[in-house]
Amino acid sequence: MESKGTVVGIVGLGLIGGSTAIKLKEAGFATTIVGVDNSAKNEAKALELGIIDERLPLAKMQHKADVIIIAIPVNASKNLLLGLLDNAQKNQVIIDFGSTKARIAEAVKSHPNRPNYVACHPIAGTENSGPMAAFSALFNEKVNIICDKNLASTKALETALEITALLGMRPKFMNSKAHDRHIAYVSHLSHISSFTLGQTVLEVEPDEENIFDMAGSGFESTVRLAKSSPTMWAPIFTENSENIIEVLSAYIANLEKYKLMIEEGNEIALQEAMKQTNRIRNVLDKSPNN
């Protein structure tokens, strides 16, 4: 898409939406950023910080925008996307940045304006939320998963790929169902584990001073994700429930194995289990981020 005169509408002005707005303005892709958020406070803060240039009601934003990026909790994305597609202008590109895709894909697959839409999931984030958490380098050297690319128009896909590159990401292509299954293992389980660890520690160790004094860097890094927004993550867990339940079952089974080995005092088995898991280092060391 020609960057000159491009108006980008951002729906959801938190970490993801705000960071996208900042970077696309810095890169010169967007001449104007129009923001929409269900929180008037977030809209005002985003305007104050210069993340957006203008705040408008959704219908007026859609009338003005060339590209619309949706960055809101996934349980609200489906109905919003359907409404945007109902009113999509010719050549208007609509991109969804949500963390689950299969249910949304099913809902819009027969829509006459389906080609205007590109399903994306930027694998980026922090434990912080809101416009004040946004920063331009959030997406640097990260992956943007683009789902069901064959269902998007050439123009829409080219625009999504241009945005992916400008944000500093590299694209990876999947279908929606495969995306949701894989992401349950490598992302959603990590967050559930972190929330559960934080909850367990708070329940069994009521003395907050002990937690502060005795928690090492391992605990801090493992529980960091428990500081993430419940408003965002609870809908992700329910939207991807089938895959997450499968993943949790496997995870719980492994926890039970560790519990049994510890109960039996079986150090040899414990060492062997951990040695096998050390292979994850080889996988992670191949990451371009390392």
Shape: globular
> Structural class, judged by helices and strands?
alpha/beta
> What would the average pLDDT be, to the nearest integer?
89
Sketch the major β-sheet.
8 strands, mixed
Write down the CATH topology of the largest domain.
Answer: Rossmann fold
Question: Radius of gyration, Cα only, in angstroms?
Answer: 21 Å
N/C terminus separation: 33 Å
The overall number of domains is 2
CATH architecture of the largest domain, by name, is 3-Layer(aba) Sandwich
SSE run: EHEHEHEHEHEEHEHHHHHHH
**Percent strand:** 5-15%
Please tally the helical runs, counting DSSP H or I stretches of 4 or more residues: 13
Name of the CATH first level of the largest domain: Alpha Beta
CATH homologous superfamily assignment of the largest domain: NAD(P)-binding Rossmann-like Domain
> Main sheet: which strands, in order across?
3-2-1-4-5-6-7-8
Given as residue ranges, the uncertain stretches (5+ residues, pLDDT < 50) are: none
Number of strands: 8
Helix amount: 40-55%
Itemize the secondary structure elements and their pairings.
Layout lengths: L6 E5 L3 H12 L5 E5 L3 H9 L5 E2 L2 H7 L2 E4 L3 H13 L6 E4 L5 H7 L8 E6 L20 E5 L6 H13 L3 E5 L1 H29 L3 H7 L2 H7 L6 H10 L1 H23 L3 H11 L2 H6 L5
Parallel strand pairs: 1-2, 1-4, 2-3, 4-5, 5-6, 7-8
Antiparallel strand pairs: 6-7
